Amino acid sequence: MIKVAILGASGFVGAELLRLCAAHPLFDAVRLFGDSQAGMALADVHPHLALAYPAARVERFAPDALDGIDLVFAALPHGQSQAIAADILGRGVAFVDLGADFRLDDAAAYARWYKEEHKAPDLLGRFVYGIPELHRDAIRAAKAVAAAGCYPTTTILALKPLLPLIDPDTIAVSAASGVSGAGKALKEDTHFNTVDENFTAYGLLSHRHTAEMEMELGGKVLFTPHLAPMNRGILATCTAQAKGPCDPLAALAEAYAGEPFVHVSERSPSVKWTLGSNAIHITARYDERTGRILAIAALDNLVKGAAGQMVQCANLMLGIDEDAGLSNVGVWP
Amino acid sequence: MIKVAILGASGFVGAELLRLCAAHPLFDAVRLFGDSQAGMALADVHPHLALAYPAARVERFAPDALDGIDLVFAALPHGQSQAIAADILGRGVAFVDLGADFRLDDAAAYARWYKEEHKAPDLLGRFVYGIPELHRDAIRAAKAVAAAGCYPTTTILALKPLLPLIDPDTIAVSAASGVSGAGKALKEDTHFNTVDENFTAYGLLSHRHTAEMEMELGGKVLFTPHLAPMNRGILATCTAQAKGPCDPLAALAEAYAGEPFVHVSERSPSVKWTLGSNAIHITARYDERTGRILAIAALDNLVKGAAGQMVQCANLMLGIDEDAGLSNVGVWP
Amino acid sequence: MIKVAILGASGFVGAELLRLCAAHPLFDAVRLFGDSQAGMALADVHPHLALAYPAARVERFAPDALDGIDLVFAALPHGQSQAIAADILGRGVAFVDLGADFRLDDAAAYARWYKEEHKAPDLLGRFVYGIPELHRDAIRAAKAVAAAGCYPTTTILALKPLLPLIDPDTIAVSAASGVSGAGKALKEDTHFNTVDENFTAYGLLSHRHTAEMEMELGGKVLFTPHLAPMNRGILATCTAQAKGPCDPLAALAEAYAGEPFVHVSERSPSVKWTLGSNAIHITARYDERTGRILAIAALDNLVKGAAGQMVQCANLMLGIDEDAGLSNVGVWP
Amino acid sequence: MIKVAILGASGFVGAELLRLCAAHPLFDAVRLFGDSQAGMALADVHPHLALAYPAARVERFAPDALDGIDLVFAALPHGQSQAIAADILGRGVAFVDLGADFRLDDAAAYARWYKEEHKAPDLLGRFVYGIPELHRDAIRAAKAVAAAGCYPTTTILALKPLLPLIDPDTIAVSAASGVSGAGKALKEDTHFNTVDENFTAYGLLSHRHTAEMEMELGGKVLFTPHLAPMNRGILATCTAQAKGPCDPLAALAEAYAGEPFVHVSERSPSVKWTLGSNAIHITARYDERTGRILAIAALDNLVKGAAGQMVQCANLMLGIDEDAGLSNVGVWP
């Protein structure tokens, strides 16, 4: 068994990592760190995990807590990974980080979008950007992976194979996310009565995930995220000016042939098809009337957009089956 | 009192018209037509109206049923108004139709988008397109109004004042609607288990409301509607290439100063602010980074996008207070 | 116009009072108090009210702030009314309080259920318990009313006419509420991701509203509230041992004949029929098999269960039409 | 591998069986029957299964279609199993039926609750009632199991260990179910706009699942089911007169010690903890004030209340690990 430590175990992604580890044939989640709930029984923090981890407790993180660990999953608030990455990298263990800290390869872009200087710019080059379908070989060879964000994963997988067909400076992405993307912190924006029966755009012109999209896609991306009244799921609706008549669906089908978690189809995808699974469903069209392409992708932001992608990356890093512990079937309905 | 007949009283818009008439100081809904439920007590069809209309019944429509009526509201399935419009127009009563039948001024555009020939093309010129904020004087003078569709109302009000600032051939609209927009008919797409916890795009490249948008906005509009898991509400997120640096929010504020139902604000609007009301909330931005404008509008599809707009138009046609029977306050939370 | 002050204007009930006052022919909400948001424009606190109250601001409460006020609505956190009631009563203005502070007529029952001594027990007798259908004459004659709680209103209206038919010591009430009943405060229990797609019981054996039910119904009530994933609405499902075969539906119909906001019907009521309205829908059955009665009632917890009932009581106190400013039609769907 | 046939593959339970089989180490779903969608690719009927079953098709059932099959799962509309049970039993294969057809051991009770004569009363004795926690040994020895209904599983598991403590003739059960319990058929009751933001009781005094509860619990059960606006989940809130002071939580903990899918805890259970899993969470209290017990249980109606329980039963019948293919961790949030 592979000994796994989870940093941020009391959050939504931490909980999801624990759910996936419970189904994984080789991952044994032996250390669960979460400062805000340290000392509590896991069953009290996450009752849905009570039967699977009857004796587990959440601990406060300490420097030597990773001794004997083979794999570190970090799902920490933005910025915290920068403080501990050097130590973890020094241990030589496999490290998959979900924060935004090490996703961008350019410290200047980080400072521009995150409004602060990067605290460990020399480590940026040590991390591979974690989208297995696009960087599989590099992930296999890496000791550290910065798993892609939920919106970027959806958008980049929908558009990257279409780059030869479009003008990347005309990309517009309108995406809707379930509320879990905002995390477990208590905010007026995530109060049930704010979100239920509501739909609203946020982060207008300024959402930080734009940086990842532009890093992978090139061009100027106008990204508008929305909050939808659902627990999970992201749907990204992407448009761009086409260079000419083209078949974007064929381009996607060719690019993702044989991928275990990517389903390309003419049918307009539903986020619900992916609930709890590591699948992403994608479609695309060329619009003769306007000369533009339309590409739409759907995934579960906590799985393919977070914990599942982390497990998929870790599987690759550790040389085990890429789909170990992961389902490609959504919980439906 | 003004004697009102409602065609389509057993549907969602019919029910909403009845709710609004119950609050209207002058409208008395005396004849309720609905073929599929004809003969039933209204309280059995719509229990939420039982206290307001304890004795009302739904009737089958017949040619002479409109004798003595002052105002006809029609909320019928697509195509049915074409068959009865000539008769209603011949009576000289005020007529507000919500169907798509008489919205477009061009029978060829109708045939192109609706995939069938228009059956009463000679009557198209008799109808004013029903968005009071844009065609108030014409509505005041009209005997017949074709109230705008829900998506077009949202999009057109968000973008029309910005036309001097943008290239209309680059407009892209990504909109989300509550499920009531699809009506009361039983379809797999509107089964609770299909929609709940889901988000999906539909009508890709081909939604008929595009025609209304292009009629009012000019240019080529790429419109992508989505179904969101909520009863009501439409949010339209619109982008277009700007001609240059500009202040779209100021343009909106100027255009709608003094409008009783339009609220322009820097804040990103929420559909929930409009629930049950005739209000529309709009914001806009100019994005220096990409040179594009972003405009976002929210309304209740069954009120400002349907029944409320019908009442607002009828108020104008009949020379009474434009806001009679209408609220500008959403039911929140 | 009647000058109205609202204490707790930034909360959910305060917002609902403002919505109802905007529709009321005589109520002018001129002073809005809310300490936590004092100084903010109302449009920033409650954007859904922006068009109706464009210039209003939320103020900090001060002793002399009620000068010139005719009617005080208080929707404050539990316990706060006890501190200010003497001053308000001294002014001789109409006062409708929604807190639990003055609902019970027995200070000992208050101490037992609320786990603290009452701070103004001598004022308890000055307040009439605010359910107009049961205490209309007393409310008309009162200067101070303690509007009933949301669960008690639902339960008491469903059961009080049935008391001659049942053994009150066998009453069991299982009720479900929308989340707005828990207020606007940020709590893990009201985070969207806690509530959405969830259903759970809370306050087992100990919910304080039991005290009001027992005060009005007599007997021993076992009350189990549940949280349902919806903004508003309460449904109370009540059972009790019958004294013998009986017709509880007829008893309800007789008791509420002519009531403007009570609808008695054989049909099982839906909370959605009442959304945004002051209506309550009730049904009942006698079960021959078990010898028990089943009574079910539905209302909107923020209207008939809070702000609407407050307005209804104030209308009675001030001698104006009981239904002024109130709708009996739910916003449906 | 065990060759599995699924009757009713195009319904909700059929889809869930396919999801569970995809995760099962030994079950190979090789024949999928569903008359209404016969001939369609499974990926078109259930897109969420497209990656797991890329080549599967739905077939029309025919007498010889079960040749070579080891295990039959039937999830058919009420009444259909009676017509085919004799043939399946004659084959000697393992048969798990989810319909109500063979759950009751008494044909008279069937006729009384289902309002029709049973068509194969002689086969009733061949089926074991499928709740593994209560009838494990009998299921192990059986060739045919009638898996318990969703409401009965929840209620019976909550109350059976408490029978020595209570008067069974005073049991009242108020339960709420997600909409998937009503199946995929298109009905006004399951239209999104009927259910969303709604809560309502149905089947008053007459829900057929009462029969199963009384069979297993004895006594007179007054059962009132409700529809809640969620996809899945059942919460049953059960009360009964206690014989005297008692500790029902201890009784439950003792009864279910070591059970892989039952979690007994003082905490009030949430249906969401069980989403997609085969877990059931239960709590109980004795109320000194009223002398009654309160027991509450939560599960996923499509898993522990349907497909998961079927798999659990089949695992026992086939002598493989009871939890093979089943998770005890809910998909949360």
TrEMBL record, chains A, B, C, D:
Keywords: Amino-acid biosynthesis, Arginine biosynthesis, Cytoplasm, NADP, Oxidoreductase. CDD domains: AGPR_1_C, AGPR_1_N. It catalyses: N-acetyl-L-glutamate 5-semialdehyde + phosphate + NADP(+) = N-acetyl-L-glutamyl 5-phosphate + NADPH + H(+). GO terms for molecular function: N-acetyl-gamma-glutamyl-phosphate reductase activity; NAD binding; NADP+ binding. SUPFAM superfamilies: Glyceraldehyde-3-phosphate dehydrogenase-like, C-terminal domain (SSF55347), NAD(P)-binding Rossmann-fold domains (SSF51735). It is an enzyme of class 1 (oxidoreductase). Coiled coil: none annotated. Its EC number is 1.2.1.38. It is found in: Cytoplasm. PROSITE patterns: ARGC. Catalyzes the NADPH-dependent reduction of N-acetyl-5-glutamyl phosphate to yield N-acetyl-L-glutamate 5-semialdehyde. This is N-acetyl-gamma-glutamyl-phosphate reductase.
